[in-house]
Amino acid sequence: MNLFTEFRACVLDALHALTAQGTLPEGLDFANVTVEPPRDPAHGDMATNAAMVLAKPAGLKPRDIAESLAAHLLTDPRIASAEVAGPGFLNLRLANAVWASVLGDVLDQGDAFGRSSMGQGTKVNVEFVSANPTGPMHVGHTRGAVVGDALSNLLAFAGYDVTREYYINDGGAQVDVLARSAYERYREAHGRSPEIAEGLYPGEYLIEVGEALKAEFGAQFLDQPESVWLETIRNFATERMMGMIREDLAALGVRMDVYSSEKALYGTGEIERAIDRLREKGLIYRGVLEPPKGKTPEDWEPREQVLFKSTAHGDDVDRPIMKSDGGWTYFAPDIAYHSNKVDRGFDLLIDIFGADHGGYVKRMKAAVAALSDNRVPLEIRLIQLVKLYKNGEPFKMSKRAGTFVTLRDVVDEVGADVTRFVMLTRKNDASLDFDFAKVLEQSRENPVWYVQYASARVQSVLRKAADMGAAQTKPDLSTLTHDAELGLIRKLAEWPRIVELAARVYEPHRVAGYLSELAAEFHSLWNRGNDTPDLRFVQESDLATTAAKTALVRATGVVIANGLAILGVAAMDEMR
Question: What are the Arginyl tRNA synthetase N-terminal domain coordinates in residue numbering (predicted)?
Fold first, then answer.
């Protein structure tokens, strides 16, 4: 139950009634009417902007509309007060019985509380990570993996039918570089000195691949020309790298439903079929592009190319799909891959890319719009950089990778739970600082510890209550009337709204932010019990009161666990 959706419906009913009685004119559009938590909780439990957004089209003063609306809403016994504020905002306070009902819903629904039918089974494909299979994943891939996986969890929780997909970029020149790099480690395994020329991958992770090549093929490729071994070693090394990537993802708690290969698009007619679909729509032509901005005639030569008319679908310029030598540009197989996803019947495509793909967004959205006749939307989320520190100092590069800090470096250092939660503490398009020392601190300043500590405290209270027999006592939830207790229930009531809001805008970091706020409310109530004994969750001589208070604690644990499950982080029974 989304309480805010329920009371928005109540507000809309009141507006329709005001229209019927002539207070409001006919034909007003109520689409922009909202019911939300007020910015300042002291103002009430909910606030609606109805009077503000309707005043101009109605030709009335906002306060006049708000006062009429307030009078109508007060006939609902669930609304204790309706106060007009400022130019015409309307703040609502709900009766205590509403909060007891919310608490009952949390306890009755358990891990289903907050689940939504908003997605209505929409088939959505979330493509994320999709790292080149040339080495271990770096910390940037880590953030993308966490965001993609948490978003997939969130959408599934909100009623979508989600497929997680990894697109293996194994069709370009980089896998040939991998093969040549692995060949040098193969030579090294035979006692030769590896020649790691500029442009090859220097990481020590390829030493194991060289040893495996020796075990598989013996000396048959030694002193042989590249034409003899390139394809075999490329396939062997790529498969080894993908095995390592799968292991790294598993260490982070990420699983994929589908792995798709770029290489599989070549030589199968897939690319040609996708381009032909665009050609049939009149979107493929031969032409000459304008010089790129900032280029001078001396360093740019106009030439005729095969172009996709992406400007017909919102792009800034048309895009080349074929190189001068007749080969496909990198954009062409990507068009074919997204065409394949459209053909598989997905209703929504979401791509999670690194920040360096910013220039790629419009062209890919244009391609999907053209291929699907604007039926299938493509959402692209860019992942900004992660800056690594340790005690405030930049974290040094990984020796194993040779050039960067790997996903496994991060997980091995702080654990998957910490890694995942911290990666979700900021919106995906904002850069993120990750300090290995700070993320392990046991303090309120460390959000993952603070939330998991709340989870552990919940279980501690429930164990004490069970020991005294309170778990067998039916709780009277109406006895929870203290402002601090009601404040915690109000925060629990926001959970279904947060789920739907975060899913609607594809922002799983909102769940992490909400959990931090919920944990703060819970810890605050816990701490107030130190000074006010009546607020303590366990009342040693009063089973009935303990049963009611621990029902609130149990409900808090349910919502924390549900939120952490979306983030892919464990709820704690105890902290060590």
Answer: 5-94
The strand pair at 123-127 and 348-354 is best described as parallel
Supply 327's token pair. 């080969």
Tokens 């197989």 belong to: 333
Dist CA 511 CA 498 (whole Å): 7
Res 296 pLDDT > 80: no
Of 161, 221, 140, the C-alpha closest to 185 is 221
Contacts of 342 (CB under 8 A, 6+ apart): 349, 368, 371, 372, 376
* Alpha carbons 67 and 79: distance in angstroms, whole number: 15
Q: Taking a C-beta distance cutoff of 8 angstroms, is the pair 138, 401 a contact?
A: yes
What is the spatial distance between Cα 123 and Cα 121, in angstroms, rounded to a whole number? 6
Phi, psi of 92 (to 5 degrees): -115, 140
pLDDT in tens, 268-287: 999 999 999 999 999 999 99
Q: What angle do CA 565, 441, 423 make, to 5 degrees?
A: 45
H or E segment to which residue 260 belongs:
strand 258-261
In the chain, the largest separation of any two C-alpha atoms, in whole Å, equals 93
Q: Are 141 and 408 in contact (CB under 8 A)?
A: no
Q: What is the pLDDT of residues 146-186, one digit of tens each?
A: 999 999 999 999 999 999 999 999 988 899 999 999 999 99
Residue 272 gets the label, from left (phi > 0), alpha (psi -120 to 50) or beta, of alpha
Report percent pLDDT > 70 for the chain. 98
Tell me the per-residue pLDDT of 490-517, one tens digit each, with 9 for 90 and over.
Answer: 999 999 999 999 999 999 999 999 999 9
Asked whether the beta carbons of 492 and 102 are under 8 A apart, the reply is: yes
List of residues 6+ apart from 511 with CB closer than 8 A: 150, 154, 424, 498, 499, 502, 563, 566, 567
Query: Do residues 454 and 523 make contact, with C-beta atoms less than 8 angstroms apart?
Result: yes
Q: Find out whether 51 and 96 touch, Cβ atoms under 8 Å.
A: no
For the whole model, what pTM was predicted? 0.94
Q: Tens digits of per-residue pLDDT, 404-439? A: 889 999 999 999 999 999 999 999 999 999 999 999
**How far is 534 from 531, CA to CA, in rounded Å?**
9
Q: Per-residue pLDDT for 399 more than 60?
A: no
**Distance in angstroms (rounded) separating the CA atoms of residues 499 and 563:** 9
Q: With a cut of 70, say whether residue 294 has pLDDT above it.
A: no
The rounded distance, in Å, linking the Cα atoms of 65 and 84 is: 10
